[in-house]
Amino acid sequence: PAMASIDVERIPELEKAVEAHCKAGTHDIDGSLALLKLYQFFPDKLKADIVAKVLLMALMRLPANDFLLCTYLVQERVAAESPVSTIMELSDLLERCSFPAFWRLLGEHRDLVAGVTGFDDSIVEYALSVIRISYQVIDVKLFSAMVNSAEVDKWVPKVGRRDGDTVVVELSDDNQAVVKERDDVNAVRLDQLSKAIRSMAHAM
Length: 204
Description:
The chain is mostly helical. It has helices spanning 2-24, 29-41, 48-59, 66-71, 76-79, 84-95, 99-107, 119-134, 140-147, 152-155, 190-203; strands at residues 137-139, 160-163, 166-169. A three-stranded antiparallel β-sheet has the order 1-3-2. It is elongated and about 60 Å long. Residues 179-191 and 193-204 have low confidence and may be disordered.
């Protein structure tokens, strides 16, 4: 009981830290997980708006797995209710890289991110990282929709260069098929051959 009392007393402190991180545009994943865990033990102390802020800050860390870690500690009933349910929808769209749909939905719920500094820019950076690894050439209109900005020329230099109605993305190992040279294209490594033989033996 005494330990439980001490844990409960930590909740306001952790909630204040969440608010501070929102204003600073940063995220303390350890603090967030600690707070969500305490909300599980003391559901009567749970504040849905704080959970929402924790999840929004976690989304800002994409492609890191902060959001996934946090969702493991969010109760189903909380996840099914607004505003957390909306954030779950936003996350799903980002997971599928449906950036235009993400920005449309966010536009309908701008109040969600009103107190979260740098949220839009963080998602734009994530969109740019997806573009870097997924495209060699991308239509300017699609590029604009993915970064949610008509100021295409502001963002293009971060991925490549503009060429008329397209954006030419700088080539990298991620966005091109690389054929590795081999000393002997007909050579088969002995260990690979052994594995293949063992697999066939098990299948027989």
